[in-house]
Amino acid sequence: MKKLFLTLIVSISILSLNAQEQGKIRVGLDAGLGIPNLGVGFNGNLDIRYNVMDNFNVGVKFNPGIFIKDVVADEVDMEAAATFSTITSTLVTSDYYFNNGSSSFAPYLGGGLGLFKIVNVGFSQSGTDNISSVSVDVSDFMFESKFGGLIRGGFEIGHFRMGLEYYLIPRTKLIDIITNTPTGTTANSFLNFTVGFYLGGGRWKK
Prior knowledge:
By secondary structure, the protein is mainly beta. The longest helix is centred in the first third of the chain and has 13 residues, at 2-14. The chain has an 8-stranded antiparallel β-barrel. The protein is built from 1 helix and 10 strands.
């Protein structure tokens, strides 16, 4: 691990740290494939940033998403369970780029902090249950607000962007879909693969 860390530091130091244009604003749009615990989700990003320096920017990121997670299916005992989640966030973010100004390829590292609004609704059924007649009003489920964070890395080529993100979000209540009462807590952190593009901000290749 120590050798890997030293290799990373040396590799970064070799790069001259020029990039886009200081003082310009850029707007990014990304689509994400989320991987929570035992599930999958989809989300989108609106990322508005200001280039503080050529290789460093700060901004605000809006990220709504829907997920199905904690999926369990037991055909032998005829039991099934899943959690349906909505997670929206507003984060203050920053990214640092490694680019020498002679190439359109720009790797980056970054992160963010901010507010998450979350609803987790749990569903479970056994072979003897019958919930087809149950009426559920989703407006009754209340959002919980939590502060959390994001770490991310990836690369840009021209105006195309691809990244890997990890959202660090505290646990929140799990609400039973039928009784609308808490049945415990559930994890919210998830891994996220993103692809997208951005507009403005200048060009990587000078």
